[in-house]
Amino acid sequence: MHGLRLEQLDDGKLLRLVLDAGKGNVIGAEVIASLRAAAAQVAGMPSARALVIDHEGKHFSFGASVADHMPGDVDGMLPALHAMVREFLSLDLPILVAVRGLCLGGGLELALLGDRITAAPGAGFAQPEVNLGVFAPIGSLLLTRALGDRRAADILLSGRTIKTDDALAWGLVAELAEDPGEASLAWAREHLLPKSAMALRHATRAARSSWRTIFFAQLDELERAYLGDLMQTEDAVEGLTAFMEKRSPVWGDR
Questions:
Q1: Partner of 16 at 20 to 30 A CA spacing, among 111, 133, 155, 192?
Q2: What CATH number belongs to 1-178+194-254?
Q3: What is the pTM of this model?
Q4: Closest by alpha carbon to 174, among 162, 188, 184?
């Protein structure tokens, strides 16, 4: 699989999915396809008790490829990204996430699929899409669910990076650890490994039942708004183009 690998630990009872896509672990179209292939593979592993999403390199992810957001490419990329999210959340498997360094944009959206995030001291979290003239459909829904309206709006509207002290105090991060990958595995081994895989699948499905169906429907709505409305604005194209050209955007407010 391009840009990631799936490891089976503890006789296949724990799974570790490792982002390994080069500098910044940018989530391009090939990585999205690999994530979807990994979800399909995990679906065929009924003895798994948990999935730990970890990463190589200094940073969890700089986010989705900006080039893939450009007109002509975003119409394929965004539905594929959203399909990947649905596939992971439909596994009915506890998801733990380990974050070091920066966790930005689509990277934060991937991390938000986790039931529990463990971060290294100094990690940073942001949804900077608004700085590029666009917005984050997945993050808009899952950050609001995780943090409440006001704190989610702080992140989504400012585009600023919050560090681990705020992330921990706000409840975005459950635990700080020098090695968040090992800490996530240790938590899974203590709390999940002794349990029945079937019981965990049913418990995970039940825990998500109050919001998953609504989330899927709302994500469809935001996808339509993004592709059908936002991408018709001049500012969305300007913001993305300015980023690609390494210059400041000139907003026309239209």
A1: 155
A2: 3.90.226.10
A3: 0.97
A4: 184
